[in-house]
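Researcher: Please generate the 3D structure of the following complex. Treat every line as part of one assembly.
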Amino acid sequence: MYKINDNYLKLPGSYLFSTIAKKVAAYSEANPDKEIIRLGIGDVTKPLAPAIIDRLHSAVDEMAKAETFKGYAPDLGYEFLRTTIVENDYKARGCKIEADEIFVSDGAKSDSGNIGDIFAQDNIIAVCDPVYPVYVDTNAMAGRTGTYDPTTEKWSDVIYMPCTKENGFCPEIPAKTPDIIYLCFPNNPTGTTIKKAQLQEWVDYALKVGAVIIYDAAYEAYISTDDVPHSIYECEGATGCAIELRSFSKNAGFTGTRLGFTVVPKDLKCGDVSLNSLWARRHGTKFNGAPYIIQAAGAAVYTEEGKKQTGEQIAYYMNNAKTIRDGLVAAGYEVFGGVDAPYIWLKTPDKMTSWEFFDYLLENLNIVGTPGSGFGPSGEGYFRLTAFGSAENTVKAMERIKNGKA
Amino acid sequence: MYKINDNYLKLPGSYLFSTIAKKVAAYSEANPDKEIIRLGIGDVTKPLAPAIIDRLHSAVDEMAKAETFKGYAPDLGYEFLRTTIVENDYKARGCKIEADEIFVSDGAKSDSGNIGDIFAQDNIIAVCDPVYPVYVDTNAMAGRTGTYDPTTEKWSDVIYMPCTKENGFCPEIPAKTPDIIYLCFPNNPTGTTIKKAQLQEWVDYALKVGAVIIYDAAYEAYISTDDVPHSIYECEGATGCAIELRSFSKNAGFTGTRLGFTVVPKDLKCGDVSLNSLWARRHGTKFNGAPYIIQAAGAAVYTEEGKKQTGEQIAYYMNNAKTIRDGLVAAGYEVFGGVDAPYIWLKTPDKMTSWEFFDYLLENLNIVGTPGSGFGPSGEGYFRLTAFGSAENTVKAMERIKNGKA
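Model: Done. Output below.
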């Protein structure tokens, strides 16, 4: 008789955003007349930029002719995209990353889950708390997290690094030494970020203790503050200890178009085993490339027009972030993030729990946000709003908050 | 110090098609004047059909406007695609499959590797020999295959089911009971297939011993013979023991466009645990959907025009298959497959090994094929040619074979 992977059975409840979607659907069905403003899931709302649309159309036309039709893509992704990434995201920032260290994928969510495949089961992971749930859940599925305690909402074998108001939402070096450290800056969910000198401390620490850092830089395009690193490879020695995840979802609106990439430097070795080779093997065996037309569109993001147009979208969202920050502050909320990231992290009022505040917002103001506790125990008492709505809805949501009614 | 998944280190050499690509590149570089005909990798050459191109364009236009822009897709895939699949691929064939049993993905290769995630490490797998390498390699990566013996080219813990001329390339029930059985019909690499009554025996066996069948039906669109099942769910009881993998790569030319789906019936349970729920959890946590424009294009395959146009492409490729079969037979080769599948499986002449014949074809006739031994030890002495070339090149390749020179 076959056996299932019973690590799945240890997972508590369902994936955070599925739970939210179900709650909202139920409320919406019961109250069909209510106009709900969604500032919950980190999904973009602006259409794809004209330069991207144009390249999608021309790439589709290439697929219509035998001479330009593209079948299976190269294992690592098309070179035109990988070299463009290297020039723009790395060489331009002084990072020594080569094209054969870039692995094009269908998105950072897949990569952040799949990257665990190349590591042994008995590694100890460290995560920020609160944290993007995929890091923990995928490690739980791989049997790397021990047992789940529903009271503390913690896994026995995971090192949680609290990120709270007290430490400026920047994790501290943990007492116990981890093997794999997940860091995400600009951070999801807190919207806060890290200075280069602080990140350098993490790189130095990882090199010292022999840990690997999985660095999720999906939101780097939102950075406006000086001295905040866009890539972990801006730190000295990082190619010897860090894997970086990147996404086109938030900088170019590809949440429904799906494109990302992972950087695995050739310097990164466990003994004499190259992690670049391991990931290449995984990528070539369990994945078959992102669609050609999507990779072509990804390259269009880096053209002069593409940069200008996606830059305008980012500015639009960051203007929403300012609207939310200002609106919440004016209404007396304590607010974090939203300066170098499209997420605003707020302290719930009147000692409400995160889910109580979720229900309050949904039922009284018809606004959907994300309960901080869904991202980990230290997120309790916090709440995330995103800047990805329309400017009009964002302003309207802040009016509802100001007036205390929908 | 972090540890890698050392199962990766047990994998022999590199992925078959990467090895072939490197050999061909080296030959091509050394002989730039030679015109090489590629009948090796199973990659299509016909451009996407007009109905698909039209839908891609209109879907791209939807992504350009805020009112029709699509962000994150529903976890299982868009309902318009899943219901279309159910109507055409299942209900029309009398199979009781519902839309919430369909999981849309970026392709059958990813799914055939990822499906292993929901099973325990200590399941015993059975595979046909020869076999599509991804099934074995991904199980090796998961630590499910024991140790590799380079002499026999077998893994200690894998049940190999020889498919040879003697048994008509149809596997026999193995002596040792497996937990997970991989079956692929029409078969890659042999191009042969299975009758419904034979497949029913496998379903009955799996139900009896409590095994699960991973049924890869990526080539079903090539079936022309009556009484050959297009889906394993045509067999009685199969929803209680089988997962089916489907692809748009070969029926609609999506190798570089990436779309597939996996069927996990709600009837499929291990004790009281629903495999549908497990896969839904995996799908929702480690994957973020196929691009909207690609899913829209997938639905266009099922329109009246789409069916007609992709049907013509399949007929074109199957005409190539006939050219290859006839050409090889005329040249004195012993030939299998190529009737219900785009693959032709031939016995190498003069007791040449598969790789010797690969080198002979590449160097003397400038034809690229795939060595049978690359698919498993019982593939030694066989060779695979594919019908996915152009008609012109396919005819030219057969002339080279007839004349014994390029």
